[in-house]
Amino acid sequence: MRLTVMFILSAVFCLAMTAAGYVALPLLGTSTLPVHWNGRGQADSFAAAATVAYAFPVVAAVLSAAFALAVPGASTAAGKGRRPSVGHMLVWAATLTLLALLQVWMLRTALR
């Protein structure tokens, strides 16, 4: 049951992040945007607007799959129905939340 809840939570986060990227992409245009800054606060790495809009949802989906596979015994027939621990679920949810916040911050910064 817990694993199903985490899959639903992951899907909601990934869909919301993809929707945010889809809405923001026309506003970003075809420009390149800063994605990394050095210690002095100067941009030193840039990426295409589409990369900024869609990278975090892709990373969230890949990490969600990794978290699902990391549930002990869940990937075997004998372990089918195993439930992730509360700590596993908290780290999974925190990772999704962090990725969503980073995407919002990147898009908000780019749209200024």
Keywords:
3 helices; single chain; 112 residues; elongated
Please give the structural blueprint.
Elements: H1 2-28, E1 32-37, E2 43-48, H2 49-69, H3 86-111
Antiparallel strand pairs: 1-2
Describe this structure in words.
This protein has one domain (2-111). Helix content is 66%, strand content 11%. The chain is built from 3 helices and 2 strands, in the order αββαα. α2 runs antiparallel to α3. The radius of gyration is 17 Å and the shape is elongated. It starts with a helix and ends with a helix. The model has no long low-confidence stretch (mean pLDDT 83).
Helix content: 55-70%
Domains, number: 1
**SSE order, one letter for each helix or strand:** HEEHH
Structural class: mainly alpha
Average pLDDT figure: 83
Fraction in beta strands: 5-15%
User: Could you name the ranges where pLDDT drops below 50 across 5 or more consecutive residues?
Assistant: none
Rg, nearest Å: 17 Å
Strand order of the biggest β-sheet: 1-2
Distance between the termini: 42 Å
Number of helices: 3
Brief overview:
The protein has helices spanning 2-28, 49-69, 86-111, and strands at 32-37, 43-48.
